[in-house]
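Please produce the structure of this protein holding adenosine-5'-diphosphate.
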Amino acid sequence: MDNTKKQTALSTLGEFGLIDRLTQQIRLQHESTVKGVGDDAAVLNFDKNHVVITTDMLTEGIHFNLMYVPLKHLGYKAVVVNLSDVFAMNAQPRQITVSIAVSSKFSVEAIDELYEGIHLACEQYGVDLIGGDTTSSMTGLTISVTAIGEAPKEDLVYRSGAQPNDLICVSGDLGGAYMGLQLLERENAVFKVNPKEQPKLEGYDYILERQLKPEARGDIMQALKQLNVKPTSMIDISDGLSSELMHICKNSKVGCAVYEEKIPMDFQTKQFAEELSINPLVAALNGGEDYELLFTIPLSDHDKIKNDPDITVIGHITAEADGSQLITAAGSAIPLQAQGWNPIAKESE
Ligand code: ADP
Ligand code: MG
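Below is the modeled complex.
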């Protein structure tokens, strides 16, 4: 937050004043949005398409730390993580609703910043903000976003369609967001001991961006359409590759073989992992928050995707009885474990 700006208490606006301020700049873009903010409910019309709906809630201290996460980035990310879920269904996001619970420690200007990020994500991804709820909280900030998307019924891709011999693909690279978080946590710990020390973040812009300003891979969904490839199953990587692979395997009743040396990782991810003496593979497998797409395609579609620099084949689907295996660089098979990201377990640690 920019503390040089004047800070106005939320109580000066009241609930309705705040809602007006946060929603006044909305310009609706979609024909499917019949009515947005301003009535008892929004009204949507999707004609013949199927509708997908997804929600995520983020709470201060559990999902984000305002010591190092700027509110504008938080707003942007809260929207993007939901759009990522819509893309993972192979659907096009159209609308979002945003609900916030705020304590009196937040000023009007702070909530403005949060909404700057929200509006920016709406603009960037072409979605309409059509409503939400605004309430107060005793302590921190909670933000819940619901995204609504559409797709022709036959386009939808579920977690359940993977078949033995399908190729397993991922977009982009993995583990960066987790390493970015480790860097921010480290510098925050230093700051707590010595507030005069400048944070050492140079040279790590990529992993910081992966953590603070993730993007949802609608471009990959579009690219696959253009290549005439419909994934047999798909999921977005929010909790780490391991746990997402296990979701696909469980839902599709199949096994998988994934090759360690094929998992795409950025140079900075590996470099910072080395600096912390951790295996970067752990960041890719169990780190989470990469918001890349993990999907399976028929083997016969390999030629169509093999020249796309943003798509990497990391393994193949096997029979359920073969289990979920990671094949190490040395050639041994180890069972994948879904660690995922469990805020409840983390809290009690
Ligand atoms: P109600 O009393 O019917 O719940 P509200 O007074 O809560 O209505 O909200 C008025 C309008 O503003 C509604 O259209 C609602 O969807 C919208 N709205 C409320 N809070 C937010 C928010 N934080 N962001 C976006 N729209 C909001
Ligand atoms: Mg309300």
